């Protein structure tokens, strides 16, 4: 019951009341330090009260709980050293990482915790010591890997076509070689080495990605932009296309250009994932993801309707015409593709002035230009501009969240020997097996002096105002309006003189 009440207090909107009640309940806990402590019992979702405060974005409760867990090591004047308990914060030995919970939650308030002590210092330590070097090395290794795959595709085994053309529009010159003909010369053996590297890399990608999908869940793993969800879809699809290409090569099946071209596009697009390692480029990846899966997905439904309607109209208009004079609409698939190019203004309106064009073509094309080019494209630009404005105002939070997500990902995938645990074990200070982070803090004395001055003036003004109010209330029935205004004026003057005198006394003492 006590643990349930603690979880309920974390969700309370009145944070000050919740903190006091939290302390009151823990004062009756018999196992304050043992494994049976109320603070260590998780709820049905596996969240302790401390983790629940982070997921809900309750910064007041989080700071209150951290203040309870910190240990003051020493202090000398304005300098002090504090040990913060990071046992539940550090993701090194946690199955359900506190940092991963913060960046994967849908509440924006939770990302503010990443800027609080000691989370900010812990993430900075992990990222600067291990995360950034490993991530840059991984980016360089992936680019070299993609260069190897691209060269294998460029020099894939082809031979001249021997069959006769069955159509005047057939433009094929080379065809794919059979498996027995693909690996004969010395250049083919070099290409075989690159192909083996490509296939091994695809298998490694699947081996690393599938366990995380099973652990987190497909919806959460692919749906979170901060965690790089769309890029996970891209890299898994890329690996599958590589394996499909390998099967088609081994079975001498024609048409390997289809999965190979998909793999090239997806593989090089995945390079944008590594932009999150740089503060200047990281928020732009989030911006692209939000535009593609937000604005563009909604816009594509409207675009598909317009393209289908006008492409059908263009095909019907030119169905009775000679395709050799104007071949952009000679069949229905080509009409769809040409209308798509017209929609994006990639090409101008096709026309052949040597022949008579149908009158309805001019009418339909006029309506298409007004609706598609002037209206819908400007609508898309406005939608993307709004998304850019919203993401630009959150770019600092998004950058910190991307760094945390990348750090947790690398920490889970790399061996323990390459990523030692951060912090100091509590045994060195007689604090048990819990881990702590040493943070040196410098207290600005001028700031505290100003606070003392402010409190002194406020306290004196408050006392004088209370005394004046009591006096006004006791004589309120007998005094006239003129006397009330005079008394108020004299009260304010005496208050200002007394406050000033007390403030100058504090200044003299400090000097």
Automatic annotation (TrEMBL):
GO cellular component terms, A-Z: plasma membrane
Main localisation: membrane
Gene3D superfamilies attached to this UniProt entry: Ankyrin repeat-containing domain (1.25.40.20)
Entry keyword annotation includes Transcription: no
Keyword field: ANK repeat, Membrane, Metal-binding, Phosphoprotein, Repeat, Transmembrane, Transmembrane helix
TM segment ranges: 134-158, 192-210, 231-251, 257-275, 296-318, 359-381
Pfam assignment, any one: Ion_trans
InterPro entries referenced in this protein's UniProt entry, alphabetically: Ankyrin_rpt-contain_sf, Ion_trans_dom, TRPV, TRPV5, TRPV5/TRPV6
Subcellular location per the Swiss-Prot or TrEMBL entry: Membrane
GO term, biological process aspect, one: calcium ion import across plasma membrane
GO MF assignments: calcium channel activity; metal ion binding
Record-annotated Ion transport domain positions: 135-394
Membrane topology: Multi-pass membrane protein
Source taxon at top rank: Eukaryota
Protein name, per record: TRPV5 protein
Gene: Trpv5
């Amino acid at each position: 019951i006590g643990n349930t009440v603690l979880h309920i207090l974390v969700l309370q909107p009145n944070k000050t009341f919740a903190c006091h009640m939290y302390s009151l309940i823990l004062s009756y806990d018999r196992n304050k330090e043992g494994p049976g402590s109320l603070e260590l019992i998780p709820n049905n979702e596996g969240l302790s009260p401390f983790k629940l405060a982070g997921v809900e974005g309750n910064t007041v409760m989080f700071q209150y709980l951290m203040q309870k867990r910190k240990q003051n090591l020493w202090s000398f004047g304005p300098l002090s050293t504090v040990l913060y308990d990071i046992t539940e914060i550090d993701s090194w030995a946690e199955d359900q990482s506190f940092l991963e919970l913060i960046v994967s939650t849908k509440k924006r308030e939770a990302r503010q915790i990443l800027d609080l002590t000691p989370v900010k210092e812990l993430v900075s330590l992990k990222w600067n010591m291990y995360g950034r070097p490993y991530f840059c090395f991984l980016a360089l290794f992936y680019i070299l890997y993609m260069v190897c795959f691209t060269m294998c595709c460029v020099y894939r085994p082809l031979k001249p076509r021997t069959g006769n053309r069955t159509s005047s529009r057939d433009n094929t010159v080379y065809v794919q070689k059979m498996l027995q003909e693909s690996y004969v010369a010395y250049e083919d053996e070099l290409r075989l080495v690159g192909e083996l590297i490509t296939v091994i890399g695809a298998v490694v990608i699947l081996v690393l990605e599938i366990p995380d999908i099973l652990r987190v869940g497909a919806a959460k793993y692919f749906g979170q932009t901060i965690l790089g969800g769309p890029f996970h879809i891209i890299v898994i699809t890329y690996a599958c296309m590589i394996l499909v290409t390998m099967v088609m090569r081994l079975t001498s099946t024609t048409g390997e250009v289809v999965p190979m071209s998909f793999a090239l596009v997806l593989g090089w697009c995945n390079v944008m994932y590594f932009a999150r390692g740089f503060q200047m480029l990281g928020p732009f990846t989030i911006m692209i993801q939000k535009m593609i899966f937000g604005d563009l997905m909604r816009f594509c439904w409207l675009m598909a309707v317009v393209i289908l309607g006008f492409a059908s109209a263009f095909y019907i208009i030119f169905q009775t015409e000679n395709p050799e004079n104007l071949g952009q609409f000679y069949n229905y698939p080509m009409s769809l593709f040409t209308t798509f190019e017209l929609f994006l203004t990639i090409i101008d309106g096709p026309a052949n002035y040597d022949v008579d064009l149908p009158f309805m073509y001019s009418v339909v094309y006029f309506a298409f230009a007004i609706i598609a080019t002037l209206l819908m494209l400007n609508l898309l630009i406005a939608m993307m501009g709004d998304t850019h404005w919203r993401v630009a105002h959150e770019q600092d939070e998004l950058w910190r969240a991307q760094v945390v997500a990348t750090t947790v990902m690398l920490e889970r995938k790399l061996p323990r020997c390459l990523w030692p645990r951060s912090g100091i074990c509590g045994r060195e200070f007689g604090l048990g097996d819990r881990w702590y982070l040493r943070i040196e803090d410098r207290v600005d004395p001028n700031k505290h002096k100003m606070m003392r001055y402010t409190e002194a003036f406020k306290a004196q003004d408050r006392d004088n105002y209370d005394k004046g109010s009591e006096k006004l209330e006791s004589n309120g029935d007998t005094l006239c309006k003129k006397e009330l205004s005079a008394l108020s004026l004299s009260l304010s003057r005496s208050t200002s003189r007394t406050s000033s005198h007390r403030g100058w006394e504090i200044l003299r003492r400090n000097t």
